[in-house]
Amino acid sequence: MLELFLDAFWLGEGTRELLDHLLLVAVDEISYDRCKFLHLHCYRLRLPPAGDGEEKVFMSREFIGMMWRRTEFLGDVLARGYNFIFTDTDVLWLRNPFPRLTTTRTPDLQISTDRFDGNQWSRSNPINTGFYMVRSNDRTISLFRSWYSLKDNSTGLKEQDVLQAMIREGRSIRERLGVRVRFLDTLYFSGFCQGSRDIRAISTVHANCCRTIIAKVADLRVVVGLWKRFRSNATSVDDSAVLANMAHVACANSWK
After folding, report:
1. Is residue 222 a contact partner of residue 246, using CB atoms and an 8 Å limit?
2. Are 52 and 64 in contact, with CB atoms under 8 Å apart?
3. In whole angstroms, what is the distance from residue 229 CA to residue 214 CA?
4. Average pLDDT, whole number, for the chain?
5. What is the pLDDT of residues 178-199, one digit of tens each?
6. Where does the Nucleotide-diphospho-sugar transferase domain lie (predicted)?
7. What is the pLDDT of residue 234?
8. Which of 91, 114, 99 has the alpha carbon at shortest distance from 9?
9. CB neighbours of residue 240 within 10 Å
10. Which of 83, 87, 68, 79 is nearest to 25 (CA)?
11. pLDDT tens digits, residue range 41-99?
């Protein structure tokens, strides 16, 4: 997974220079050692006892615990005054995403969606916390603290479910905390839940709607191969054929 993630930065359009600004947060020793070997910026995030070193299957107790530990860590980064883009390693950066992100003071949070409903401000968009850009300010710091504070009262829910509820509830985070959220269009920030309609517009591809790492790796390898083919002959390639071949079969079968 890590190798595919890094490969995309080398193969993408306008993405190589972004590696200098990448901090890789590893939750196991193998990934951390690999990161150091590659001379990247690396941080070792400790999980609760027995939480390191093995796959956390989607929605298992260990998976949910890891997601909440991640939220706590990112809230601490935010509180230290850093704006950042968070990305899972199952998100391939095929183009520099910054031209598709708003870099003005508003919105506070720009977050990917599993399925985009056509309105970038609509709270009905189903969010995905695998990719988002957040500004550090009093509003977002309060958001992350409020979000994490709900951990112990959200048994069986991953942190994404809790944030989704906070966004959609009657007094949303917009009204209570003043946080303005922009929901990202899958045309540009695509995934396996809902693919982009235009290979020439895609910035990122996320292996969401997938249960296991083995399945994610298999289907992301297909995406990387198709991307190489597209880049090598972009003037004559059949765009619709490229998109049709991003069928993520392994991920679809991972739920069976």
Report:
1. yes
2. no
3. 23
4. 91
5. 999 999 999 999 999 999 999 9
6. 18-220
7. 74
8. 91
9. 11
10. 87
11. 999 998 876 555 555 655 677 778 888 899 999 999 999 999 999 999 999 999 999 99
CA distances from 131 to 23, 30, 52, 84, 174 (A): 14, 23, 23, 11, 20
Handedness of CA 133, 136, 139, 141 (dihedral sign): positive
Statement: residue 207 has pLDDT above 90: yes
Chain centroid offset of residue 218 CA: 18
- State how far the Cα of 16 lies from the Cα of 86, in Å rounded to an integer: 17
HEC readout, the chain: CHHHHHHHHHHCECCHHHHHHCEEEECCHHHHHHHHHCCCEEEECCCCCCCCCCCCCCCCHHHHHHHHHHHHHHHHHHHCCCCEEEECCCEEECECCHHHCCCCCCCCEEEEECCCCCCCCCCCCCEEEEEEEECCCHHHHHHHHHHHHCHHHCCCCCHHHHHHHHHHCCCCHHHHHCCCEEECCCCCEEECCCCCCCCCCCCEEECCCCCCHHHHHHHHHHHHHHHHHHHHCCCCCCHHHHHHHCCCHHHHHCCC
Q: Is the distance from CB of 8 to CB of 94 less than 8 angstroms?
A: yes
The pLDDT score that the predictor gives to residue 170 is 57
Report residue 4 as tokens. Answer: 């595919």
Task: Calculate mean pLDDT across residues 155-161.
Answer: 86
CA gap 29, 44 in Å, rounded: 8
Average pLDDT over residues 154-182: 86
